[in-house]
Design goal:
There is one protein chain. The protein is mainly beta and about 100 residues long. The chain has a single domain, classed as Jelly Rolls, CATH 2.60.120. The chain has no helices and seven strands. Strands 1, 2, 3, 4, 5, 6 and 7 form a seven-stranded antiparallel sheet that branches. The radius of gyration is 13 Å and the shape is elongated. The termini are far apart.
């Protein structure tokens, strides 16, 4: 469910601000062994639950981006496959900005 929701998304970013959000959004990233995934993020939460994470092809969590933080994080990819950036919100009010690149 979404109330007061504005978002934009492309092949290398996910941004949204919202008054109320309860959903899970995912972005698939095909990566190869030896790639470095660089994530630049800002996550703001006023109420509810909001979580962002990176999952490997088997669904194992590789990184968590906590609410009310910002920064740049890197992961060196260990195996080929489709990785996911996952945003989970439950009765959340806030925003997120996540951009990534692969080197």
């Amino acid at each position: 469910m979404r109330i007061g929701y504005k978002s934009s998304s492309s092949s290398s970013k996910m941004n949204a601000s919202f008054f109320f959000l309860s959903e899970t959004r995912k972005k698939s990233l095909p990566l190869e062994d030896g790639d470095t995934l660089i994530i630049d993020y800002e996550i703001r939460l006023e109420q509810g639950l909001l979580r962002a994470k990176v999952e490997d092809p088997l669904g194992h969590e590789l990184m968590t981006l906590k609410p009310n933080t910002q920064g740049v994080r890197e992961i060196t990819i260990q195996e080929d496959g489709v990785y996911k950036i996952v945003i989970q919100a439950e009765k959340a009010k806030g925003s997120y900005k996540i951009q990534w690149r692969v080197e």
